[in-house]
TrEMBL record:
GO molecular function: DNA binding
Regions recorded as binding DNA: 125-225
Organism, scientific name: Brevibacillus porteri
Lineage top rank: taxon: Bacteria
One Pfam family from the record: Trans_reg_C
Residues that bear 4-aspartylphosphate: 51
Sequence ranges assigned to domain OmpR/PhoB-type in this UniProt record: 125-225
Protein name as it appears in the record: DNA-binding response regulator
Cited CDD domains: REC_OmpR, trans_reg_C
Span of domain Response regulatory: 2-115
Amino acid sequence: MKVLVVEDDKTIADGLHYSLSSEGYEVVLCEGKQTAIETIKQQRFDIYLLDLTLPDGNGYEICEYVKENQEAPVIFLTACDDEINVVRGLDMGADDYITKPFRIRELISRMKSSLRHYQKDHTPTDKVKIGNVVVNTKLAKVYKGTEEVMLTALEYRLLLAFINNRGQVLSRNQLLEGIWDLDGNFINDNTLSVYIKRLREKLEDDSQNPKVIETVRGLGYRMSGSHA
């Protein structure tokens, strides 16, 4: 079970790392908003523990990013338990909050509860939404708004490769492996560029400024997962 802890108080962060690691969790620590966002772009986590007050932002902004790009529970760690802060966090999609100081056993219990509820409420679906694009994987149909988008078999396989790794950066080699021609025809790097260009032309509102399939300079591509 992989946990991202965003906490700028080193004593609290180190204590959480030790306690959660002892319980078998794989823990990654971040001290601020920007490093957390960059980490989330590169990795997926099963649950997020976010401090509200950070040196370069706040936990609300990270929560918003998580909920737009991944499907995982978020718990706020806060010294502020007044109603306004609590309601704001829950309205943004946070799954729970726990007030500092807290006992580690209580936190772990809350984490397990959030994971159970989240898994129950987020059962797999045949429909995937990316912005105003909806993919029905059961029927292998793609819609942009209310209009069906006609994709070739290779374009659809490329789209599925992005969907199955949503929010993660995929190198060109990883994408080539994901759309290898079933008939055995070789798909080269130039061909991949053509297919990405075609996919963007069909799915993006502005293919020159893509929002669905983003270019990550020097690394590859990422499906943003942001909602319209």
